[in-house]
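Model it.
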Amino acid sequence: MILQPETDDLAAYLMADGVIDHQEPQLRRLAAELATPEAAFQHVRDEVRHSADAGAYSGAFRASEVLAAGNAICHGKAHLLAALLRAQGVPTGLCYQRLADGEGDFVLHALNALYLHGRWARLDARGNREGVDARYDLERERLAWPVRPELGECDYPGIFSAPPAALVRALAEAVPGRAGYGYLPGELPVDGGAPGRPGR
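Modeled.
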């Protein structure tokens, strides 16, 4: 699959905003302590639990809130990794997959793309468990979930500098302590433009 940045301006992938809020001092301190993109990836993957694995649903999705909570779903973890990498000066965006939820429907999964050595590479800091072995690999993707097109799953090729506004509104509906993903869309909500179209 050919990744499609929504803009060629790498500065867009270094900005702070209300979700990827790497202007926050605690995020900047942690980014400096971790020092490298690989260490940042491993920290988010291993030290910030996925809510389903932890059995504790924080509802957090803003990067600073995810760091404070210590657990989040994939979207919150992707926002935190983007914040840490941007604080390290590494252009980082958001990518999405449509995955089967095992109950006949789909759920939207979030991961990251970072720009290093003149190219984009996708990483997935969802968190490993039995059957999931995502790794930091800039040459060969080692994602949590390889898509299964026969089930209607897909990779979206877009690299977003910020989560779509409709997705942010959905994430804001999460209730702390309540398990499940019913508030998440099954498709990527896009306000127009090619980056949101499914790819293989």
